[in-house]
Amino acid sequence: MKKNKAFCSLVFLLLIFALGGESMASLKLPKLVSNGMVLQRNEPVTIWGWADAGEKIEIEFLGDIFKIRADRNGNWQLELNAMAAGGPYSMTINDVVLNDILVGDVWLASGQSNMELQLRRVMDLYADEILKINTDQIRLFRSSTRENAESEKADYPDGKWLSSTPENIMEFSAVAWFFADKIHQSQDVPVGIISTAIGGSPAEAWLSKNKVTPFLDEWLEQGEKIDSMRAAYIEEHGEIKRYNWGAEVNKNDPGAGKWSKDDVDVSDWPQISLPGYWTDKGVNFWNGSIWFYKEFELDESLAGEEAILRLGRIIDSDSAFVNGTFVGNITYQYPPRIYTIPEGVLKAGTNKVMVRVFNQGGRGGFAEEKPYEVRVGNEVIDITGDWKYHIGAELNPPRTNFGGLGFRPGGLYNSLINPMKKYTVKGVIWYQGETNAGRGFQYRQLFKDLIVDWRDQLDKPALPFLFVQLANLGLPNKQPVENGWAETRDAQRRALELPNTGMAVAFDIGEWNDIHPLNKKEVARRLALEAERVAYGNDELVSAGPLYESMEAEDGSILLTFSSVGSGLFANSKLEGFQIAGEDGEFVWANAVVMSKNTVKVWSRKIEEPVAVRYAWDGNPAGSNLKNKENLPASPFTTED
What we know:
Radius of gyration: 29 Å
Shape: globular
Distance between the termini: 94 Å
Oligomer: single chain
Strand content: 25-35%
């Protein structure tokens, strides 16, 4: 009998323990609400999560206790009182203890690749500065997800708050880090960055379901066309066979596994001058693999030393070898090639560089005005000039790829914005537009819709929204032309019609040969200037360059009026970059002169009755030099509607 009672007591205790464990396990917090998080100061803050239906939730933080029950679906959320900057603090939610919490300013950093680009990619400009970073006052949250979701996600699949330590810092967005550092310095508070940018993403992918319908319809129509093309091909040719491009390259390349070795004979290989596009140099090759070979001499004193091979930027992808040793590869065209040559590879006398380049269509080559060199100790060996080359595999793939649908309209909102929309933020910094270039007129409304949409979704109608205007790219045109990048820049400028917005002009700090310019620190500085005005109320600060405001035709010329002129328009140099047109809409280069603190007169002898002016209207408007006396550049614009 005693044994039975003991057994029943044991079962009862185990049952209580199991139920208690189940109760504890039922509480779930979003990934953002975790150790190391940064909470927004001076505003009520929402903490939320999931539990069993009706479960009691108790939060203890900074001496206050907040209580609520989960609803019938297991959802719960509590609003904490506004608090001053400070920390680190701890928070208890039922039996869960969160530590190392800071209170400061939280910014959402989003857009496409120029916002996503990490600090590791800008080491050429800022290595000394980056290697010294070590602070817990600036923190980053980023999930690894790149899901293009069909429905709204309640949480991220992963992600945690990271401090700015040497172990973590290379993962930080370069723009976001430099921006956060400026805010931390000016406001003297902790700064948190929620980073959601995804390379190549169009603005449509970032809209919520409330705004996305017209774009989703267009996307679905495109899918129907692709399905129709695929069905027609199958009817004519039979089943579509999968084409493995990489396998076909290796199968048809006689150099695969051979020419990368140290003893390859290149005596009969033709010669080419690099950098540059090989099609510009008479090599008619478009799809497959092509090998490039270069020799350089090394002094005996440097033999065996670890070194760096710089191969600029290669279109499309590459694998590099030095003296038969593999030193690195990059699988797409944009990242800089910075490969480490291990100790013991370099030798006295002649050394050999072999680069296998892969190209899947279009012009391939080595981008100009990038570093191509070997760095050994303090010595820099230039490897531009004459190289030898040999086509490996030249392919003609079957036309069975009917194109994908790319990013689903609303897909990135669903996976990356919806999970954080309850998290209180100070504002948004946004760098995007490259993917929408060429559709600038549509972008005028699309971008405004996105800003309003996010304000609605985050329940902050006056949310500060700061963005970067597209940087310069490509060779300057000698004559006025229509240009998709210029049109998109003008669409971005027009978004300033919305309240609490700010724009960082960047057409003067990009790189003509790189869609991902390195100078992210100046971009961030200009964003931070706008943050001081828009988010922190410093109306005395001149935070941007001149902005076109109005025009008036006057005696064969046009008088332009500008806002944001600060101490006045800079008038000590000849103005460049202005174009003027008459009724026929044909633009020509124009003369321009500063007339007063905020006006510019524009004219041309070729246009007797001008009706419109454009400024800096090119993908790379080199030489366009209108600015204010604070040295902030004017935004490109057109006076046309």
